[in-house]
Design goal:
Number of helices: 28
Structural class: mainly alpha
Order of helices and strands: HHHHHHHHHHHHHHHHHHHHHHHHHHHH
Number of strands: 0
Largest sheet: none
Length: 654
């Protein structure tokens, strides 16, 4: 068992780790985040990195507040890390530090530079930043607890890797519930195991397992949590998977330590508790069988190998089959050994044929996207049944090593999947531009159709109607202002009822005049009509001022409407006369299309280079496995010949 150190991804929980200062900002109006910056934060907490990058690009041209610009740079660098763009993100953080930001901004930029240096293996740079944060007053207070834990883990890890006993001092800065404590303990146990001190290593592994068990939900947690009497927070699904993965590592290390101490049955119990990682469990069972064999317990060892050989189809099952044949020969069952080796030869031939086919599959363009999607699946989850059908089951350990192997391409398939997503997003945008061009074409056709059916006379008709209405109202108002208030003016603003009363009064006066011409009438008739005439004139005179004001207001409104109508008429006339109404929009579409094609070319280059590197890595793994299986087949054939020679020698013995 070799050394094992923890190496995590470069970005963890962007929503909390990158925006602590935003949540803790003052609530004064001057310090409130702008709308553009708020949209960036919203996209970030939606865990949509692509939308976050779009929002950042938009906000960069809108934000003028210096503090928000610094926060935006911090976010941009952090999101870039999630896509594996460590070099670009490092440049952003260094540029931010050159601008002499506030202490909170410097602390966070230092933290992310330390993370980048740690992933790149530049441990001295990590330690320099760690010491700088520790020596700068109140710098660490501007980091979240998770960030402080990660820095302490990095310092302890580096010291542990370099054999510096001060790693325990660094580990003391970790919070009590930090999972990093158990990783350091696991690394410590691995170091002790490598020195052959199995009993002490076993004690260290037990200590880590006990600490992991205590970190789980306490008994009755759900009741106390429901009553609000517990501060314990249940771990997320990702944290639970990480805890289980570390538990499996510790159980495997514990079982191997127990096997090294010849504690067979406790080792079997430890190995039997491994969950999820079937390949690790199979490897442990293979080693368990050899431990039994070294103890001369061949029947039990062969039973373990028989179970593993019959129930699994992987490299460890092939090795178990070979061990089983060796066990048969050791126990005097040469015939069973020969038949087992014969069956192993067939399985090896099948595995070699599968590797030949897999080598051809690696050159297929559609295999890389399947591998990229599979790299993002959770443990035990298969997102792509097509990949399962094309990747041999017997070589699943190669797939695991390819997707998660600790090489310079670690995380390469995750980055490749991100590039695929960016390419798909860019393709959709280019399709939208094509659709927008069609809309512009349809718009111009509709414009030409309307221009053919509309002419100056049609456009002028409603305007002329408004002009005539304006002239009529203006003439009425001028006439009212020129007449005597006690004369005809009263009739200009009279309503229908008043006009009807005036008409009846005029008819009455006419009839009275006719009657006077025939026979003199009583003066009371004329007086009565005069009184009625006076009442009507008084009513109209009283309402004249208000009616005149309303008439002037209506005239002004009509005048404004006429001016606007003529303006719109002029604009519409110019628009109809315009041949190309979408020139500006087409220029913008062409510019966007040019940028999109440029980015598409850059993405294609990045994808091609990364695919070639990953394909070469897979090809190398397949080639190494083919060489191993070919050598194993030759050894198996040689063992079969040896058994045949022994059988013939026995037959020739008198």
């Amino acid at each position: 068992m070799g050394k094992s150190y923890k190496s995590r991804a470069a970005l963890i929980s962007l929503g909390w780790l990158l925006t602590t200062s935003v949540l803790a900002a003052d609530t004064n109006d001057a310090n409130k985040p702008s709308l553009a910056f708020g949209q960036v934060i919203y996209a970030l907490y939606q865990e949509d990195s692509l939308a976050t990058l779009d929002a950042i690009a938009l906000a960069e041209s809108q934000i003028t507040n210096e503090e928000e610009r610094q926060q935006l740079a911090l976010l941009k660098g952090g999101v870039g890390l999630s896509y594996g763009l460590s070099r670009q993100s490092k440049a952003i953080f260094e540029q931010l530090l050159d601008s002499r930001p506030s202490l909170p901004m410097r602390a966070r930029a230092w933290y992310w530079l330390a993370r980048i240096s740690f992933v790149q293996g530049k441990y001295q740079a990590v330690m320099d930043i760690y010491q700088r944060l520790q020596s700068t007053e109140k710098a660490s207070s501007h980091l979240s607890q998770a960030q402080r834990d990660m820095l302490a883990y990095q310092a302890a890890y580096i010291a542990q890797k370099q054999g510096d006993g001060r790693w325990q001092e660094y580990a003391k800065d970790l919070s009590a519930s930090a999972l990093e404590r158990q990783y350091l303990t696991y690394n410590q146990g691995s170091e002790i195991y490598a020195k052959g001190e199995f009993r002490q290593a076993l004690a260290v592994f037990d200590e880590a397992l006990l600490a992991l068990q205590q970190d789980k939900q306490p008994e009755g947690f759900w009741l106390w949590h429901w009553l609000g009497l517990s501060d314990f927070e249940a771990p997320s699904a990702d944290e639970q998977m990480e805890q289980q993965a570390l538990t499996n590592r510790l159980l495997l290390a514990k079982g191997q330590s127990q096997l090294a101490m010849d504690r067979v049955w406790p080792a079997l119990e430890s190995l039997g508790q491994i969950q999820g990682e079937s390949l690790a469990a199979d490897e442990a069972l293979l080693a368990f069988g050899w431990t039994l064999a070294r103890q001369k317990n061949w029947p039990m060892a062969m039973a373990v190998w028989q179970q593993l050989s019959a129930s699994r189809n992987n490299i460890f099952a092939l090795q178990a089959t070979h061990a089983l044949a060796y066990g048969y020969e050791h126990e005097g069952g040469e015939v069973q050994a020969f038949e087992t080796l014969k069956g192993l030869t067939a399985r090896l031939e099948s595995a070699l044929n599968e590797l030949e086919q897999l080598a051809l599959e690696l050159n297929q363009a559609d295999l890389m996207p399947l591998l990229a999607r599979q790299s993002l699946s959770k443990p035990g989850e298969d997102n792509t049944s097509a990949l399962k059908a094309r990747w041999p089951q017997a070589q699943q350990d190669l797939l695991v090593e390819l997707l998660t192997g600790a090489t310079h391409l670690e995380g390469g398939f995750a980055q490749l999947q991100t590039l695929y997503e960016l390419k798909a997003r860019l393709t959709r945008q280019m399709e939208n531009l094509t659709h927008y061009r069609k809309l512009l074409d349809e718009r111009e056709l509709e414009h030409q159709r309307r221009a053919q059916h509309l002419n100056a006379e049609i456009l002028a008709a409603p305007v002329e109607a408004i002009a005539k209405r304006y002239e009529t109202l203006q003439a009425q108002l001028e006439e009212a202002q020129s007449l005597d208030k006690q004369g005809q003016v009263v009739r200009l603003f009279a309503n229908e009822k008043q006009l009807a009363s005036l008409e009846r009064l005029a008819r009455a006066k006419g009839r009275l005049a006719e009657m006077q011409s025939v026979k003199p009438q009583s003066p009371e008739y004329a007086q009565r009509l005069a009184r009625l005439q006076g009442i009507l004139d008084w009513q109209l005179s009283e309402s004249f001022v208000g009616d005149s004001w309303h008439q002037q207001k209506a005239l002004k409104e009509v005048q404004l409407a006429l001016t606007e109508a003529r303006t719109q008429q002029q604009r519409l006339t110019e628009l109809l006369a315009q041949q190309d109404i979408s020139a500006a929009q087409r220029q913008r579409v062409d510019a966007l299309d040019s940028q999109a094609h440029k980015k598409a070319g850059q993405l294609a280059t990045l994808i091609g280079d990364l695919e070639n590197e990953l394909r070469q890595r897979a090809t190398d793994l397949v080639g190494e496995r083919k060489a191993y299986l070919f050598a194993q087949r030759n050894l198996t054939l040689a063992a079969m010949l040896k058994l045949q020679d022994q059988y013939r020698g026995q037959d020739e013995t008198p």
